[in-house]
Amino acid sequence: MRIAILTGAGISAESGLGTFRDQDGLWTKYDLNDVATPQGFARNPRLVHDFYNARRANCVQAAPNAAHQALADLASGPHDVTLITQNVDDLHERAGSPAVVHMHGELMRAVCASCDARWDAPLEMDPKDPCPACHVQTTRPDIVWFGEMPYMMDDIAQAVTAADLFVAIGTSAEVYPAAGLVELARGDTLEINLEPSARANAFENHRFGLATDIVPAWVAELR
Ligand code: APR
Asked: How far apart are CA 67 and CA 215, in angstroms?
């Protein structure tokens, strides 16, 4: 069976990484306009680097949880699995998932705003870091900010459309285009989340609860 999976911050919540819109989520502590937009970065690159340096440090301290592990196990089984994530952490990879599609970029990667070179980010990035390729001091986290185009959208749309089953896990479905992917699904649809998301009505099936309980049980049914 072809399965397309979209994960959000909720799958990493039990690994200790903050979500965005839950109570005490990241966007309750930071103004996303300051730390997650190109305009915010242009205004204050130091604040933005400090924000992502702190998230990178959290990510290194965190460990994949049973939900990440279950999806990695699923990918090693008989099904054709495409794992798309809105998350910028590397917990899917560290759980063993191959070929993770990071539509919002990756915390552990850096990009040059001048020449578009990409490289593995150091733990601490600084506005004065020169780009390793063009040496201009315009390095930034390789994160897709609000107002920027998510990565790999054609491949993602193709995978969701072709899937026999589209599953969204741990996302509030508040941010597009990710929240609109369910409209492209032609097969069965399943939402796995702590509570109904903003697009719950677009899914035929739902399983509500903690990702570390629900996802391993769901994967076990498929093996
Ligand atoms: N198990 C399952 N679901 C959970 C858990 C958990 N342990 N904890 C939280 N959730 C659910 C919440 O109910 C919520 O619906 O995860 C969802 C997290 O929603 P958001 O915080 O909005 O995160 P996400 O949907 O990934 O945000 C999408 O917004 O800010 C941008 O780029 C950012 O990728 C992010 C995008």
From this structure: 5
What is the pTM assigned to this prediction? 0.97
127-134, Cβ contacts within 8 angstroms, sequence gap of 24 or more: 127/45, 127/46, 127/49
What is the three-class DSSP state of 26?
Answer: helix
Name every residue whose Cβ is closer than 8 Å to that of residue 93 and which is 6 or more positions away in sequence.
100
Distance CA 219, CA 222 (A): 5
Take atom 36 of ligand 1 and give the residue whose Cα is closest: 175
Residue identifier of the C-alpha nearest atom 23 of ligand 1: 9
Chunked in runs of 10, what are the mean pLDDT values of the chain (223 residues)? 98 95 89 96 96 96 98 97 98 97 98 97 97 97 97 98 98 98 98 98 98 98 90
Separation CA 127–CA 47 (nearest Å): 10
